[in-house]
Task: structure prediction
Amino acid sequence: MTTPPPPTASATADLHRVVDAVWRMESARIVGALARVTGDVGLAEELAQDALVAALEQWPDTGVPAKPGAWLMATAKHRAIDTFRRAQNLQRKTQELGRSLVQDESAEEDWAAALDEVVEDDVLRLVFISCHPVLSREARVALTLRLVGGLSTDEIARAFLVPEKTLAQRVVRAKRTLTAARVPFEMPTGTDFTARLSSVLEVLYLIFNEGYAATAGEDLTRPALCQEAMRLGRILAGLVRGESEVHGLVALLQLQASRLAARIGPGGESVLLADQDRGRWDRVLITRGLAALEEAERTARDALGPYALQAAIAACHARARSVEETDWARIAGAYEALAALSPSPVIELNRAVAVSRAYGPAAGLELADALLGVPALSSYHLLPAVRGDLLHSLGRDAEARTEFERAAGLTRNERERALLLGRAADCGGSAGLPTP
Result:
């Protein structure tokens, strides 16, 4: 019998791409289901990773199965059974798993179909576990991208510009924290659900914002993070259909993401919203964002929440054909409502910009100046950037130059720094007002 030749480098690369794509689509379901039966998120991920390794080892010889997700789940389940059988002190769990999970190979489709009946609950529980308030913000972001997003440790580390070892330790500590806190793998209820949902939305928002405006490095944006946040948001919206703020967040992310291509010039430089070619805005994302905003408004029990209000502001930009045709008075009013609902100096700064557009730069500068003594904004580069724009619009160019230079010294993003230094060097030109 002739031994088949080893796969070529190209074939191996193609297979790895297939496995990676399957993992991205199926990992949350697999880890969620395993966490449900094991009660241990860390163990669940280990078992799922074992199945992934098995796929990389076996699929080159056997080919990709017709139902790759079901294959991975079956393999992970068998790994779980073996693990519990080896653990004598978990004999009871072994018996429970044996009754529910040990199946004849011919019955694979049967238990895969049975799993589909609970898959939505499994994924949703996994989202809420990953964003549990017992974890730090950084840990929640890392764990969500790892367990729910299916991203590798290296991918997450590169996205947030931290060493891979640091990110790996963050994920390990997060899992240990959940175990030590004995966090149950179940959905919260009542007021606990509301608190936990806020944590979930915050994490998705943080992931998106890091992609939309990178805090450091040479790249202005990291679109892959924006895409991942939107994907996870859409999953959540499909699982928690009656929550207005979930739809509000999805609307906000899609409306903001519609501008990504127009935010960067030919040389990678930052392009302010006022100078963007609106023909490059993604109309598909705008349509989806507006539809999500309508759903947020329809499901709102009372007034719109913070994310839906921000989406309404983004919708004003999306509907306008130019900066001049934008309903700035409406935006300023929305920021005022947002500030009353969720007080924040950053919101006040954005309101100052909107007020300057609606009622003149002097009115906006008055609001911005009131924020100069706020400790939270002492190292926030956008405060002097906004003041620089407003001062320039009032003809106070020397002061504007100082503010732009101060802003450039505070930002850690190279593209933003270059833009701000350019504004400082040419603040006598037609830089124009910023747009929140």
